[in-house]
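User: Here's a chain of 149 residues. Predict its fold as tokens.
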Amino acid sequence: MSEPLTFMMGKFAAVLPTDRRYARNHMWCLSSNGGFRFGFTAYAVRLMQDVYFLDWEVNAGDAVALKQKIGHIETSKAMSDLFAPIAGTLAQFNPELLNDPSAINVDMYGNGWLFEMTGADADMLSAEEYFSFLEAGWEKTQNMLKGHM
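Assistant: Prediction complete.
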């Protein structure tokens, strides 16, 4: 595995491991148990800051479409809807996060994983492509953040 990439968000570093793929909705994707495990990227976690509450609107075993609303998350910044990063079948949710979502804040690439799905990851980005995607949108993101301060 090559060294992780680091996207600088001002003075904050968002580490992007190169052993996984990335969705434009700021989730990472890693092959797991014949499917894929998903979680939030360090970039997303930094923007959300503290995650307080996570709720799913679908169940394990449900088929979902790409970009289908699957739940919502409450953070110190806002309440946001969550959307499926790929089309497929939800295999399981991380049961630990329903009781205490704090693992998202401290271990987003490990115990803070969100769910596992089966399906095709054809639209996912490599770490390098995701880094470029972040670079292309960073100025707009900074302007949006400054507008909320």
